[in-house]
Amino acid sequence: MTTTQTRRFCYHLTEAPLAPGEVAIVGAGPGDPGLLTLRALSLLQQADCLVFDRLVSQDVLDMASVSAESYYVGKASRCHALTQEQTNALLVKLSREGKRVVRLKGGDPFIFGRGGEEAEYLIDHQVAFRVVPGITSASGCSTYAGFPLTHRDHAQSVTFVTGHCKGDNCLELNWDALSAPHQTVVFYMGLANAALISRELMQRGLPGSHPVALVERGTTSEQRQVLTCLDDLVDTIARETFKPPTLIVVGEVVRLAETLAVAQPEHVKAETHEVLGAVAW
């Protein structure tokens, strides 16, 4: 590449620097730091403050400026470092102190990341912000697990669904639509409600043999996965001791992992191949 070509390439990556008092809501991707976007990396290195979630990997955090202050606001089931309201208020406080703030979220901030709620709060409090998308867990984890989310022979659509209850409202979903054939359904945060998920889908016509993939800590060196089926989903989770963060992927596409997993990145192959070899269809 010539010097002129290099300059032209860099020119297209430029944008206004992060200003004092501005908040950047940034998707950190599903864990592998190699999946971070160039724009996200640039903003990380400009930040005075990092406000980050539980699922942001340490490898990604290490890419930020060493002088950046860190604020952990992670959430796990029944265990929140800060409430969402407190996190919102922290972003405004740091902004009004003139800090350049990066609000770092696992995956994509606008896909089950509460990025929309935080953006609305910043608008209400007249705080300048920008949003940078990231690779969402469904896309990253399925690819690293060795199967696509759509395929002309198996799935003509894909649906992302929260498997987590809000308050006392436990998964009020359109189960009829989620049980339709020729699609892939990805449940985020669904381990605790796996029994409900499998029961509702089977009651609406999906066979107990319908394939399901469980992918834990996808795209990281700790990734592991199991291919199972709807009527064995709960037992598989217990037997293999799956823990959050784990995606539940329902659909015929997961069968393709048996042949396509050879294309996985080297750092996840050993664990996933071992588990895959122990599970038969």
UniProtKB/TrEMBL annotation:
<keyword id="KW-0456">Lyase</keyword>
<dbReference type="GO" id="GO:0032259">
    <property type="term" value="P:methylation"/>
</dbReference>
<dbReference type="InterPro" id="IPR014776">
    <property type="entry name" value="4pyrrole_Mease_sub2"/>
</dbReference>
<dbReference type="InterPro" id="IPR000878">
    <property type="entry name" value="4pyrrol_Mease"/>
</dbReference>
<dbReference type="GO" id="GO:0009236">
    <property type="term" value="P:cobalamin biosynthetic process"/>
</dbReference>
<comment type="pathway">
    <text>Cofactor biosynthesis; adenosylcobalamin biosynthesis; precorrin-2 from uroporphyrinogen III: step 1/1.</text>
</comment>
<dbReference type="GO" id="GO:0016491">
    <property type="term" value="F:oxidoreductase activity"/>
</dbReference>
<keyword id="KW-0560">Oxidoreductase</keyword>
<dbReference type="GO" id="GO:0019354">
    <property type="term" value="P:siroheme biosynthetic process"/>
</dbReference>
<dbReference type="InterPro" id="IPR035996">
    <property type="entry name" value="4pyrrol_Methylase_sf"/>
</dbReference>
<dbReference type="InterPro" id="IPR050161">
    <property type="entry name" value="Siro_Cobalamin_biosynth"/>
</dbReference>
<dbReference type="GO" id="GO:0016829">
    <property type="term" value="F:lyase activity"/>
</dbReference>
<keyword id="KW-0489">Methyltransferase</keyword>
<keyword id="KW-0808">Transferase</keyword>
<keyword id="KW-0511">Multifunctional enzyme</keyword>
<protein>
    <recommendedName>
        <fullName>uroporphyrinogen-III C-methyltransferase</fullName>
        <ecNumber>2.1.1.107</ecNumber>
    </recommendedName>
</protein>
<keyword id="KW-0627">Porphyrin biosynthesis</keyword>
<dbReference type="InterPro" id="IPR003043">
    <property type="entry name" value="Uropor_MeTrfase_CS"/>
</dbReference>
<dbReference type="InterPro" id="IPR014777">
    <property type="entry name" value="4pyrrole_Mease_sub1"/>
</dbReference>
<feature type="domain" description="Tetrapyrrole methylase">
    <location>
        <begin position="23"/>
        <end position="233"/>
    </location>
</feature>
<dbReference type="InterPro" id="IPR006366">
    <property type="entry name" value="CobA/CysG_C"/>
</dbReference>
<comment type="pathway">
    <text>Porphyrin-containing compound metabolism; siroheme biosynthesis; precorrin-2 from uroporphyrinogen III: step 1/1.</text>
</comment>
<dbReference type="Pfam" id="PF00590">
    <property type="entry name" value="TP_methylase"/>
</dbReference>
<keyword id="KW-0169">Cobalamin biosynthesis</keyword>
<keyword id="KW-0949">S-adenosyl-L-methionine</keyword>
<comment type="similarity">
    <text>Belongs to the precorrin methyltransferase family.</text>
</comment>
<dbReference type="GO" id="GO:0004851">
    <property type="term" value="F:uroporphyrin-III C-methyltransferase activity"/>
</dbReference>
